[in-house]
Amino acid sequence: MEKLYTYLALGDSYTIGEALPLPESFPYQAVQLLRKEKVHIAPPEIIARTGWTTDELAAAVNAHTFLKHYDFVSLLIGVNNQYRGRSVEEYNMECGPLVERAVALAHGKPEHVFVLSIPDWGATPFAAGRNRETITSEIDQYNTMNRALAAQYKTQYIDITPGTREALGDPSLVASDDLHPSAAEYARWAQKLAEGIRAQLK
Fold it and tell me: Where is each SGNH hydrolase-type esterase domain found (predicted)?
């Protein structure tokens, strides 16, 4: 009997695809891409909520009853830490254990964990009237940290941030709430994630 692969997505509004139907979120789009290539994979299990910071995601993870293991795990968290003005050092301290937990949930296989960079919401219409340069600079600092954590725990790293900055000149990449990515932007993330998963299946 063909193996059914499992995928766990941990995060915040970017993981649930805020302002869009759930099937247009990047975890669901990635699964659909893999299914088109005849990969037998279950719908993603998503532990994410709009507004969550690293400590709130950690609390939810600690309270949740998971499967024993997942074949693949993605983690995208931190934008709300930045939005609330929390320090990069605090983010680093709280995100490290989340990456470690993600590896444990992925059969202890770090190469099956995908840490995604934080999108730059400073490029969206929502940021009009705010200091876009400051937002961009802070997002870069956060992403320096999560990239270093991915290297430390030997996980995969998917840098989706440069693409999100194209929203400044391309409104089609932003959802109707003027803040979150559109299905077209999520499709680009899903493509990268599906490619990463496919590479591990070979």
Answer: 9-187
| H-run or E-run covering 11 | strand 7-11
Encoded tokens for 106: 């992925």
| Residue 140, pLDDT above cutoff 80 | yes
Nearest to 95 by CA among 46, 136, 162, 147: 147
**Helix residue ranges, H only, the chain:** 13-16, 26-36, 54-63, 79-83, 88-105, 132-152, 161-164, 183-201
* Angle 189-191-186 from CA coordinates, rounded to 5°: 35
- pLDDT for position 202: 86
pLDDT over threshold 80, residue 1 = no
The arithmetic mean of pLDDT across residues 160-164, rounded, is 97
Residue 36: Cβ-neighbour burial (10 angstroms; 0-12, 13-18, 19+) = exposed
What gap in Å lies between CA 168 and CA 105, rounded to an integer?
Answer: 37
Sole residue written with tokens 């400073």: 122
Q: Hey, what domains does the chain have and what are their CATH numbers?
A: 7-201 (3.40.50.1110)
Output the pLDDT for position 192: 98
- Return the exposure string of 94-130: e unless at least 16 CB atoms fall within 10 Å of the residue's CB, then b: bbbebbbbbbebbeebbebbbbbbbbbbbbbeebeee
User: What's the mean per-residue pLDDT of the chain?
Assistant: 97
d(CA 84, CA 158): 24
